[in-house]
Design goal:
CATH architecture: 3-Layer(aba) Sandwich
Largest sheet: 7 strands, mixed
Distance between the termini: 21 Å
Oligomer: single chain
Shape: globular
CATH superfamily: Pyruvate-ferredoxin oxidoreductase, PFOR, domain III
Helix content: 25-40%
């Protein structure tokens, strides 16, 4: 099993953190992992993305052009990465701020209203974990127990009290996942 993922959105949406938690979770599960961030000098508010590869085998290169999965959090990223999903692949997106929804019919498309759910919960910092939950429901490439270990590894010790809220947010994302186009 090898899963090649691009996570893309604005700086400040937790794009890099989501990728880091996913990568650490893979490491904790004894998988081969690559984590390669990319962000502009603007940081918060500018676009950022991270490529994460999780595999049972050695990873030859972290540089990819096409992906098994794209997790998209803004329109600019949708415009840039929708066509980079391999046929038969997966695109998960948050509809907030998306003006041109994905239109491909040769990939699986799911929507996770993470921003809306995070607003409802009253903590926008949980947005990325809600989205991650939706992804993990469709592709459980790491077990839940390792996600918690990944959170412990990637969050500073002073924030470990937030781990239960993050776990709940992941579960909320699994519950609100909405299929848009599912291949037979």
């Amino acid at each position: 099993m090898t899963e090649e993922i691009i996570i893309a959105g604005f700086g400040g949406q937790g794009v890099l953190s989501m990728g880091k938690i996913l990568a650490y979770s893979g490491v904790m599960q004894n998988k081969e992992v690559s984590w390669m961030p990319s962000y502009g000098p603007e940081m918060r508010g500018g676009t950022s993305n991270v490529t994460v590869i999780i595999s049972d085998e050695r990873i030859s290169s972290p540089t990819l052009v096409h992906f098994d999965t794209a997790i998209i959090l803004n329109q600019q990223s949708m415009d840039k990465f929708e066509d980079a999903v391999k046929p038969g692949g997966l695109l998960i997106y948050d509809p907030n701020g998306i003006t041109k929804h994905p239109s491909r019919t040769d990939i699986n498309i799911y929507q996770v209203a993470g921003y809306e759910k995070a607003s409802e919960i009253g903590n926008l910092k949980l947005f990325n974990m809600i989205i991650l939950g939706g992804f993990l429901k469709v592709k459980p490439i790491v077990n839940d127990e390792f996600i918690e270990k990944g959170l412990k590894k990637s969050l500073p010790a002073r924030h470990h009290d937030l781990i239960p809220a993050n776990i709940k947010a992941i579960e909320a994302g699994k519950e609100i996942l909405k299929p848009i186009n599912v291949l037979p």
